[in-house]
């Protein structure tokens, strides 16, 4: 299965940015663990601080990949355009967040993306990605572009 792990703004700073909230490991350090844990998956990752690049990547893979694990960062709460892109594609998307959004500021507790996603996982740090991949593993799609 081909799965894209798509990271939004400021996630390139993981391990350095507010480690009390986001942890002290970079995504690049964690990614090899995911590829080793899911040998039957073809995992790729992409990060951008630019909304349009995230949308373009969703359009690129959204009709051919088996899944997307999306950590949209701050765009989760602000981007109608990114929510529309998730709604427009056939590939299922699982929304992930490192921190527990319910325990954060009021503005972080609303996701514009969640209603278009197969599910949302938050609060487990980098392990949120692994949990999302376990969900895809359980789906065992019979065709590319299944939609839940």
UniProtKB/TrEMBL annotation:
Pfam families: DHquinase_II. The active site is at 22 (proton acceptor), 97 (proton donor). Its EC number is 4.2.1.10. Keywords: Amino-acid biosynthesis, Aromatic amino acid biosynthesis, Lyase. It is an enzyme of class 4 (lyase). The record marks 17 as: Transition state stabilizer. Substrate binds at residues 71, 77, 84, 98-99, 108. One of its GO terms (molecular function) is 3-dehydroquinate dehydratase activity. The keyword Membrane does not apply. Pathway: Metabolic intermediate biosynthesis; chorismate biosynthesis; chorismate from D-erythrose 4-phosphate and phosphoenolpyruvate: step 3/7. It comes from the Bacteria. Signal peptide: none annotated. Gene3D superfamilies: Dehydroquinase, class II. Homododecamer. Catalyzes a trans-dehydration via an enolate intermediate. NCBIfam families: aroQ, PRK05395.1-2, PRK05395.1-3, PRK05395.1-4. PANTHER family: CATABOLIC 3-DEHYDROQUINASE (PTHR21272). This is 3-dehydroquinate dehydratase.
